[in-house]
Amino acid sequence: MFRFLHPLRHPHIHGGHGHGPRGGGRGPKMFDAGAMRYVVLQLIAEKPRHGYEIIKELEQRSGGGYSPSPGAIYPLLSMLLDMGHVVASADGNKKLHTITPEGEAFLAENRQFVDAILARLTEGDEHREGLRTAMHELKHAAIEQARASNHNPARIEQIRAILRQAAEDINAL
């Protein structure tokens, strides 16, 4: 019914800002909008949430590997409101979304599917964590060496060349 997308298996699929693999986008899509509504509804079922909290929770649950854009989450929240699956109440200048009995029934009817989607979020965390650590180490080394160069243009260019070569090597995999 709905197609799952996984960033480690589908590197050619990118998120909603029109950026390619070298652009500054939010990263690859994890799953399509149809599947996303189940995840968002489940998060709201766990506790009432603001849109920003949903974005941050998805990012946290994916180990930082996935962060949906506000342009994906807020229209989805409006759709869930229109469907009667959530209600929104004013909370300062934000909206706090709470699940309705209809939303709870919808989740219960689709429990197996919802659980499969949520499992997808955390799949591969141990591999991504090692990769994330290595990327942070590389970033730290590049920054420290650039600072230590005392604005030496030749040294800065060496660092750039190493980073470009690493990117090319990774892209060639």
TrEMBL record:
Signal peptide: none
UniProt-listed InterPro entries: Tscrpt_reg_PadR_N, WH-like_DNA-bd_sf, WH_DNA-bd_sf
Native species: Duganella rivi
Name of this chain's protein: PadR family transcriptional regulator
Occurrences of domain Transcription regulator PadR N-terminal (ranges): 40-109
